[in-house]
Automatic annotation (TrEMBL):
GO molecular function: 2 iron, 2 sulfur cluster binding; electron transfer activity; metal ion binding
Protein's recorded name: 2Fe-2S iron-sulfur cluster-binding protein
CDD domains in alphabetical order: fer2
SUPFAM superfamilies in the record: 2Fe-2S ferredoxin-like (SSF54292)
Domain 2Fe-2S ferredoxin-type: 2-105
Annotated family: Belongs to the adrenodoxin/putidaredoxin family.
PROSITE patterns: 2FE2S_FER_2, ADX
Record key words, sorted: 2Fe-2S, Iron, Iron-sulfur, Metal-binding
């Protein structure tokens, strides 16, 4: 299991354990984390699982592919660390990962 901290826009934090191989989105949905809507179920098509990866974790998280980057263009609040949580596969070396959830999903 990999510890992941989800931080809401208001600062509320929720620590959960996610099996390696699952996505950050699956971890949020399975643990009823508010703010990760995941309307497309992880297909990377809707951007309702938009999140921000903590700056200190960007090197550990694989880069977004071109399709994800195009989908993120739909989001009005893209910034450094913006990702679709359905596209971030959790690995053992991500233990302690911090994910920030935007105030709303576009």
């Amino acid at each position: 299991m990999v510890a992941v901290k989800y931080v809401q826009h208001d600062g509320f934090e929720c620590d959960v354990d996610i099996p390696a191989g699952n996505t950050v989105m699956q971890g949020a949905v399975s643990n009823m984390i508010e703010g990760i809507v995941a309307e497309c179920g992880g297909a990377g098509a809707c951007a309702t699982c938009h999140c921000y990866v903590g700056e200190e974790w960007l090197e550990k998280v694989a880069d977004a592919n071109e399709i994800e980057k195009e989908t993120l263009e739909m989001v009005g609040c893209v910034r450094s660390g913006s990702r679709l949580s359905c596209q971030i596969k959790v690995t053992e070396d991500m233990d302690g990962l911090i994910i920030y959830i935007p105030e709303s999903q576009y």
